[in-house]
Design a protein that fits this description.
This protein is mainly alpha-helical and 235 residues long. The chain contains ten helices and no strands. α1 crosses α3 and α4 packs across α6. The chain is globular. It starts with 8 loop residues before the first helix and ends in a 6-residue tail after the last helix. The relative contact order is 0.09.
């Protein structure tokens, strides 16, 4: 299903940037956009970057296992439905809400694509490619859809690599193909270099989140101060 937007990703980002100069009510009125929509754009940009603001032209394929995993993770989470969904690569809370309803009614199924839907097939990758993909995936807050489009691999491949990495205790060697003969011996230095790359990715993502949170707090404080200053004084 095609999902079109009145604004491009760059236009959405420009609108978000206006929040540093005006409050959300003024920006929403100026561009005729609902405040909830602007908040959703904020979350998409925070957790998925500029790619999160882009409109998608096709449906992504999700397995029943992935849907079930996400629903069960959400049940244990204390995050809002919207933030949880966007942090896990979805565009909105609607999809996850539907999956939760299907789960509760025992009707959760894998997505069956129609002929017009574009599905990215899997491809053969090297260990170095998988390491780089997971490194960038972490920087983009584990946005599987972003990695699929960026690296021309399947959703299931990216999801599987990251799950193996996490279940191994963040061991880079979990990304190696056990069936393939290694091109060179894996040394302790190689292990440390790989761990360092992934650790730096995690730290970078954390710094970005903290910087964004600080900026949002400054904006909201400014909005609060402006609101207080605009109140009529009592004579």
């Amino acid at each position: 299903m095609s999902r079109k937007s009145k604004y491009s990703a760059k236009q959405k980002l420009a609108i978000l940037n206006e929040l540093t100069r005006s409050n959300i009510s003024e920006v929403a009125k100026k561009y005729a956009v609902d405040k909830k929509t602007i908040r959703t754009w904020e979350y998409l940009y925070k957790y998925q970057g500029i790619d999160g603001l882009r409109s998608t032209n096709n449906n992504h394929r999700y397995s029943k296992e992935f849907k079930l995993s996400l629903v069960q993770q959400y049940q244990k989470s204390d995050e809002s439905l919207e933030i949880f969904a966007i942090k896990h690569g979805l565009k909105s809370k609607t999809q996850l809400s539907d999956w939760i309803m299907q789960y509760n009614e025992s009707k959760l199924k894998a997505y069956t694509p129609r002929k017009r839907d574009s599905i990215m097939p899997g491809r053969k990758t090297t260990f170095e490619e998988r390491l780089s993909i997971i490194e960038e995936l972490i920087k983009h807050d584990v946005n599987y859809n972003w990695a699929v489009e960026k690296y021309n691999v399947s959703y299931q491949q990216v999801y599987g690599w990251y799950q193996k990495y996490r279940k191994s205790g963040n061991d880079p060697q979990s990304l190696r193909d056990r069936k393939a003969k290694p091109q060179k011996e894996w040394t302790e230095i190689d292990q440390l270099k790989a761990e360092n790359r992934l650790l730096k990715a995690q730290l970078l993502r954390k710094e970005m989140e903290e910087a964004y949170a600080k900026k949002v707090m400054e904006i909201r404080n400014r909005e609060g101060n402006d609101s207080s200053n605009n109140k009529p004084s009592k004579n």
